[in-house]
Amino acid sequence: MENRLKTASPAPSLREPPVTEPGGELALGRLPGGDPIAVIDIGSNSVRLVVYERLSRSPTVLFNEKVLCGLGRGMAGSNRLMDEAVACALAALERFRMLTAQTGVEQIKVLATAAAREAENGADFIARAEAICGVPIEVLTGKEEAKFAALGVASGFHRPDGTVGDLGGGSLELVDLTGARVGTGVTLPLGGLRLQEVSGDSVAKARKIAAAEMREVALLDRGRKRTFYAIGGTWRSLARLHMHETGYPLKVMHNYRIKPGECVDFCRAVARRDPDALAPSGTISKARQPLLAYGATVLSEIVERAQPSEILLSALGLREGLLYDLLDLKERGQDPLLAAAEELALLRSRSPLHARELGEWTGALMDVVGVDETDEEIRLRTAACLLADIGWRAHPDYRGEQSHNIIAHAAFVGIDHPGRAFLALSVMMGHIGDVEGDFGQRLRELLSTRLMERARILGAALRVAYLVSASMPGVMLKTHFSLNGKNLRLHLPGELAGLEGERLAKRLAQLGKLVGYEATILAEPDVV
Q1: How many other C-beta atoms can be found within 10 angstroms of the C-beta atom of residue 26?
Q2: Claim: this prediction has a pTM higher than 0.85
Q3: In this structure, are 361 and 411 located in the same domain?
Q4: Is there a contact between 241 and 279 (Cβ–Cβ < 8 Å)?
Q5: Is residue 282 located within the same domain as residue 347?
Q6: Mind listing the pLDDT tens digit for each residue in 156-196?
Q7: Co-location of 405 and 475 in the same domain
């Protein structure tokens, strides 16, 4: 048992003093342990500012804004940044610089990609941009873009293995990734804006250009039957449209999965449509719609050429890859899901220590009743225990619902959608019992029978734990389970014997039914 839990141990608690605002007020909803850090990404289509709460294994966004300036527009013919696009980008940078000051940022990283790198007047633009930002701007090579994109995937997926593709406005970066090891990469001139222009606004011609560019890319051969990780705003918009058309039950982009055959069929359907008829108002921005057909064309050609096992969308890319690269090796080795769950426990639960104790206590229960768990299931159960009490400030009738909504839509990484559904449902059932009515039913569609069974067992166990400990630390590990034939016994030591009661007995009986045993409380006398 000890070894199993060790593989899923959460990130260490944060013990630094809380964040203090300029007026002396404590910002208790913020994590201590470092100043905000900002990354500005000057891309070929958009200029974006993201301010992160602090540098950590699971960074939380404090502020996020993008402006679609289209710096790469028109470069296919003139090889120059257009005056209008430059003015838009510089104005955005002026605004972003003020916002970083307001959010207390101490460190700003500014990156520029294909358009600024390749344009004849790119150096002049960078000089003007540096004067505004007040820090040097790192103009990335294609290989550096690919590296940081891959590190973004390494930071956001649990043990990734496959090919990373980052589609920007000016270029497509492809790179091999195994775990945190970044392999070879290539840059292709297949960004959405560039492809639209060189094809003369012809999707049919764009498809031929993309196929020709990819024909000799040996890297794609190594991606066969492995995962393809898709990064970029245009591909995220495609996935959002796919979610809408399929009625997908979870509106979370990161780790959204599409099967290869379905991906090709969908991308070709998008490429045939009029951009104005692609999606209902509000689903995809008007500025992004004209590029969807070209992003879809590039993705379908990649899937046909590489024959991956699946396509996973990544909400993390270049910026998060840069942050991951700034971490020391120990921090990189942390599990991002458990780090994020630990942080939420610290910020929202009545007792973070109790949340950690639940992981050990429920693990012992699973051992006693013979519920086998894979390493991934242990990891998910541990995360669920850390999150079990984050809704306690809500009215008791709505704690389950609020916890479900927070967990289902939280900015977690390192977890797939079935795993996310497991966390949300098991914690919800810890408050309300089994799933009732329509609430939570859609998420059940994402779970296998095996995971749903384990979610029910964990939820029932949490309901027992609440009545024993009142969600306070130092109690649960004084109790333990044992089997006596077909009877599951919860042992309460003498000092806790007074907790025995009808309500606790009923909840224990419900847990026993789920694991196939009669269940009783055994209050043990004090040893004199």
Answers
A1: 11
A2: yes
A3: yes
A4: yes
A5: no
A6: 999 999 999 999 999 999 999 999 999 989 999 999 999 99
A7: yes
